[in-house]
Amino acid sequence: MKVLIVDDERHVREAIRLLVDWKSYGIETILEAQDGNIAMDILAREQPQIVFTDMIMPGIKGTELLAWIQQHAPRTKTIVISGHDDFDFVRKTVMYGGIDYILKPIDPLQLNEAVGKAVSNRKQEDEGSEQEQRKAIEINQLRPVYWDKMLTHLLDDSTYYSSISSTMHTEFGLPIGALQCRIAVLATDTINPIIRSKFAGSEDLLYFSLLNICNEFVRKNSQGVAFRHDHGDIVIILWKQTENAAAFLDTINTGIQQALGSRLEFGVGSERLLPAGLKQSYSEAILVLRQRNMRVVRPRIRCFDPNENPRQSTVHLSEYEDRLRFAIRSGQEKPIKEAVQVWIDQVEQMKYINMEQLELWRHEYSVIKARWFKELFGDLPIVLSLPSESAYFIVPLDQEGCLSPQQWGVELEQGLLRLSQLWMEHKRQDEHIIFEIVKYVDAHFADDLTLQSIAERFFLSREYISRKFKQQFQENLSDYIERIRMAKAKLLLMNPQYRIVQIAELVGYKDEKYFSKVFKKLEGFSPNEYRKQVK
């Protein structure tokens, strides 16, 4: 913090220097001026936070300096040091925002109190200013998000236009009156992998950069605005030169290529009245992108054509599900390659594959994958290192953005082989854990065994143990426990030294009557009848 001492008398300036404990107030720089003119120069150059000034000086008077400070440095705190007990001077000090009016000779206590008050006031203002700056930064950061929401809402509901049109006029230069508009949508699904790699997998950073490039062009002459739709699309609303939209978007594409190294694809809706036609134009732009033929090189800017109605025969991946499932269960590479190749051969024969078809395959595969996981791994709660969906259902595109079936086949084979290997490993672990449970039951048959206690011991779910045990031994775990107990009980019944109640307890039953009931149900005789028969 800096202070400036203004007084034509040197000894007064030195007295102020000596009487104030500057360090305790965080004041590091003390400047001096012997008149008002020099003080103004120092104020303009150094911008001190606190000024001490006399009222009677050669040239510019203290009251004039106070007025100048209030106009040119309003946040600077002033303390008047005067030898005149003049009401008008005091009034001017208050009028120009002075902290205190101190008479000579200077009282050290009064001087330090005034300095403390000035420092405190200035710090409070600085903190308030920083908060305002932070608030302004936050508002600027939130503004794009705000407009993303507003413009998304506008595409869905044209009646919303009346509430934001004036703000759009101020913010984006939207002309007032009847306008033609046109929507363009940037295709983010075919962005070159090289571009994506530059952003280290951060979709938000990639979209932010693309939006900045688009807005640099469309907002330059208030031709429109680019924003990110809630669905994730990058959308451009054009309201100037809509008839030349394709040429203008090509200019934007050149900018994208210069910045990121590759051109992208745009779908463009037809010209419509703003705001009523926004939704229709947007739907047309989306339709253009969804109908692109991913098997061929395409124009980068594609406009909606109402006469275009491509027809295609739908091919379902689900028709190949059984073949792929059996290949995975084989645990062998060759059957998996053969099953995948049958599917890829079908894809290769298709001359027209659009995004709707690819989305259908993705949806089908997610359903098939869910069935496979349920069938292969059940509801095992242990987290397995299974590949993500993208690891074995990637639809690779070449540098021109065209679908590459053969590369897709290679990646699909690798993913399915990994899935098959994980299943084989899981199957071996399955068998091992079930036999571990059998060994534990055989050793602890007399304990209070329940399905829940076994599940907790082996960190598995009750349902999983029950299902896997039944699959392995064709009987329920509870039946197995009772069978083991009855076998042990029959051996003990051959010894006449043991009473029935003792035998029941030795094989895990605290209630003799319940033991006898279970024994008779399984063996056809009561324990006593069995003992007599054996004897």
TrEMBL record:
<feature type="domain" description="HTH araC/xylS-type">
    <location>
        <begin position="435"/>
        <end position="533"/>
    </location>
</feature>
<keyword id="KW-0597">Phosphoprotein</keyword>
<keyword id="KW-0804">Transcription</keyword>
<keyword id="KW-0238">DNA-binding</keyword>
<dbReference type="InterPro" id="IPR009057">
    <property type="entry name" value="Homeodomain-like_sf"/>
</dbReference>
<dbReference type="InterPro" id="IPR018062">
    <property type="entry name" value="HTH_AraC-typ_CS"/>
</dbReference>
<feature type="modified residue" description="4-aspartylphosphate">
    <location>
        <position position="54"/>
    </location>
</feature>
<dbReference type="Pfam" id="PF12833">
    <property type="entry name" value="HTH_18"/>
</dbReference>
<dbReference type="GO" id="GO:0003700">
    <property type="term" value="F:DNA-binding transcription factor activity"/>
</dbReference>
<dbReference type="GO" id="GO:0000160">
    <property type="term" value="P:phosphorelay signal transduction system"/>
</dbReference>
<keyword id="KW-0805">Transcription regulation</keyword>
<dbReference type="Pfam" id="PF00072">
    <property type="entry name" value="Response_reg"/>
</dbReference>
<dbReference type="InterPro" id="IPR020449">
    <property type="entry name" value="Tscrpt_reg_AraC-type_HTH"/>
</dbReference>
<dbReference type="InterPro" id="IPR001789">
    <property type="entry name" value="Sig_transdc_resp-reg_receiver"/>
</dbReference>
<dbReference type="GO" id="GO:0043565">
    <property type="term" value="F:sequence-specific DNA binding"/>
</dbReference>
<feature type="domain" description="Response regulatory">
    <location>
        <begin position="2"/>
        <end position="119"/>
    </location>
</feature>
<protein>
    <submittedName>
        <fullName>Response regulator</fullName>
    </submittedName>
</protein>
<dbReference type="InterPro" id="IPR011006">
    <property type="entry name" value="CheY-like_superfamily"/>
</dbReference>
<dbReference type="InterPro" id="IPR018060">
    <property type="entry name" value="HTH_AraC"/>
</dbReference>
